[in-house]
Amino acid sequence: MEDVNVPFVEVHYVTIQKVGDIPIVKGDFKELPPQVQKWVAQMVQLCTPRGVYICDGSDEEAEMVTQKLVERGTLTKLTKYENNYICWTDPRDVARVESKTFIVTDDKYASVPHSREGANCVLGLWMSPEEMKVQLDDRLPGCMSGRMMYIIPFSMGPIGSPLSKIGVQVTDSNYVLLSMRVMTRVSSEIWKHLKHGEEFVKCLHSMGCPRPVERLVIKHWPCNPEKTLIVHFPDIRKVISYGSGYGGNSLLGKKCFALRIAGRIAYDEGWLAEHMLIMSITNPKGEEKFVAAAFPSACGKTNLAMLTPAIPGYTVRVVGDDIAWMRFDKQTGELRAINPEAGFFGVAPGTNMKTNPNAILTCLKNSIFTNVGETADGGFYWEGLEDETPPGTEITSWTGEKFILGEDKTKKSSHPNARFCCPARQCPIIHDRWEDPAGVPISAIIFGGRRPEGVPLVIESFDWKHGVFLASQLKSETTAAAEHTGKQVMHDPFAMRPFVGYNFGHYIQHWLDFEKDPNNKLPKIFHVNWFRLDENKKFLWPGFGDNIRVLDWIIRRTNGEDIAEVSPVGLLPKKDSINLQGLVIDWDKLMSIPKEYWVNDIQETLKWLDDQLGDDLPKDIRDQIEKQKERLSQLK
Ligand code: OXD
Ligand code: MN
């Protein structure tokens, strides 16, 4: 597929540099590698901003942009802390929009699987280049008129690491610029690392609100919800995002680049880009192991990654809370993982000094809070902070409504998908190897979801293929991270349903294929469920810091301890093999495998996978389903 064919634009280097007729208000265009100059010039000609601002990642730059946003009313300083700001968005722009997120390739089936006729494919949306061109031609020409175009050079992963990748985002949102500075490594150093002609991921973002503004701008948050489109061109490593300023829609290093585009690069190059946290656990003997864990959005990945162990003697350290890039080391066969991000963009509601003290401590400075409430004394507030905020405190909610804490329990301060955006390096338990260019060695891969019914606390896979099957059948209750409503249990294979940038069948096969290389030391694969309910809708497991007990069991299994027994759905902990000291747990209920539930579940899973993937569903997964059915038929 060809990239947009815009003729090369002349660049003038007089006293004021110009791209075409558009002045460069900051930075030196000559510093940009030629392939970046060419693309930026095309984007300038297409989007017609009033000026071009080449970012260098410096603190002075951040201060200047922040100041502007404060003056405009987009950001408000939270005076209780150092360099913390709050932002409220247009209430129509509050989450990722999966229904408007597309993958564009010449061949439809490079992007999406051969779903069965009549099945509504939820594993990616495809549009042809021709159709997408019509959509983009309707949106992009002049989309930045009257606004500044910021050129953001960024690295996913430590700058200069062989595992890292470089992107350049052009955007007309300075909120996005400030957030990208937290979430990625933004620096003019990047230009030096991009060799002549070397590939970089091209990221174009516009709020779709050119000046003079003809639309009503709400809360100083320009956006264009009716026309929002998030488009990926994996073949040419390009992302175009239009109309939304929120999170994964606009911070293009995150889901768009580090998962969808990088996933496709990883497929081509033989590695993995996954929706996973990376953490280490050190046991009382001082042995440290790293694990990677995938959970659907807003299932507590950030809390798990920064867990405060509820039992003594254990230490947890975090490498990343959302995305892992992993590859098998050619020499040692170990699976090595890096966190490509530089910050945490966590769901705020529910986070507090009990559930995740490390997250709270991370965001006491240099952070941006979006759609949370504000206390009268300049602090942040959200649902979950009740016990840490004095009753009687006046709160201004994200919709601007004032109320007194404790007076009216129906008042909500924050949007359920409100976020904190804070630098990872500030986390008190950040691992000292979190930026190790070689990555950290992964001993176990954990998958999990919110499963109120039927699914035990932890299951270990019988082997790699069975593990890939456990990941393929992952399901979870929906959350507020995207536009889904209601509490339904949805399939979310590998926790990647919204984030795969190519045919999901090929993705599953890619996972299966790692077994074929005898040099690869395959980590053990587990499935966990912290969310099982009893008949009174009470959680059967305390979760949070007590999850260390399960992690401990997992680590001991990676050491080969004989503490697991066979069940029809996988290996389960032998009774008393998980340390439950100090807890009152109904173990039998927590670990039971209700036959009827599982028989129905495997039928439904087969139907769903077959509908969604059709003939792209790998044969190994069909075999695993048959084996599971057979094992379940033996269950009493
Ligand atoms: C996220 C998500 O923001 O998964 O991390 O939605
Ligand atoms: Mn995520």
TrEMBL record:
<dbReference type="InterPro" id="IPR035077">
    <property type="entry name" value="PEP_carboxykinase_GTP_C"/>
</dbReference>
<dbReference type="GO" id="GO:0006107">
    <property type="term" value="P:oxaloacetate metabolic process"/>
</dbReference>
<dbReference type="InterPro" id="IPR008210">
    <property type="entry name" value="PEP_carboxykinase_N"/>
</dbReference>
<dbReference type="GO" id="GO:0033993">
    <property type="term" value="P:response to lipid"/>
</dbReference>
<dbReference type="GO" id="GO:0004613">
    <property type="term" value="F:phosphoenolpyruvate carboxykinase (GTP) activity"/>
</dbReference>
<keyword id="KW-0342">GTP-binding</keyword>
<dbReference type="GO" id="GO:0006094">
    <property type="term" value="P:gluconeogenesis"/>
</dbReference>
<dbReference type="Pfam" id="PF00821">
    <property type="entry name" value="PEPCK_GTP"/>
</dbReference>
<dbReference type="InterPro" id="IPR018091">
    <property type="entry name" value="PEP_carboxykin_GTP_CS"/>
</dbReference>
<keyword id="KW-0479">Metal-binding</keyword>
<dbReference type="GO" id="GO:0005829">
    <property type="term" value="C:cytosol"/>
</dbReference>
<dbReference type="Pfam" id="PF17297">
    <property type="entry name" value="PEPCK_N"/>
</dbReference>
<dbReference type="GO" id="GO:0030145">
    <property type="term" value="F:manganese ion binding"/>
</dbReference>
<dbReference type="GO" id="GO:0071333">
    <property type="term" value="P:cellular response to glucose stimulus"/>
</dbReference>
<keyword id="KW-0456">Lyase</keyword>
<comment type="similarity">
    <text>Belongs to the phosphoenolpyruvate carboxykinase [GTP] family.</text>
</comment>
<feature type="domain" description="Phosphoenolpyruvate carboxykinase GTP-utilising N-terminal">
    <location>
        <begin position="38"/>
        <end position="266"/>
    </location>
</feature>
<dbReference type="GO" id="GO:0042594">
    <property type="term" value="P:response to starvation"/>
</dbReference>
<feature type="domain" description="Phosphoenolpyruvate carboxykinase C-terminal P-loop">
    <location>
        <begin position="271"/>
        <end position="631"/>
    </location>
</feature>
<dbReference type="GO" id="GO:0019543">
    <property type="term" value="P:propionate catabolic process"/>
</dbReference>
<dbReference type="InterPro" id="IPR008209">
    <property type="entry name" value="PEP_carboxykinase_GTP"/>
</dbReference>
<keyword id="KW-0547">Nucleotide-binding</keyword>
<keyword id="KW-0210">Decarboxylase</keyword>
<protein>
    <recommendedName>
        <fullName>phosphoenolpyruvate carboxykinase (GTP)</fullName>
        <ecNumber>4.1.1.32</ecNumber>
    </recommendedName>
</protein>
<keyword id="KW-0464">Manganese</keyword>
<comment type="subunit">
    <text>Monomer.</text>
</comment>
<dbReference type="GO" id="GO:0005525">
    <property type="term" value="F:GTP binding"/>
</dbReference>
<dbReference type="InterPro" id="IPR013035">
    <property type="entry name" value="PEP_carboxykinase_C"/>
</dbReference>
<dbReference type="InterPro" id="IPR035078">
    <property type="entry name" value="PEP_carboxykinase_GTP_N"/>
</dbReference>
<dbReference type="GO" id="GO:0046327">
    <property type="term" value="P:glycerol biosynthetic process from pyruvate"/>
</dbReference>
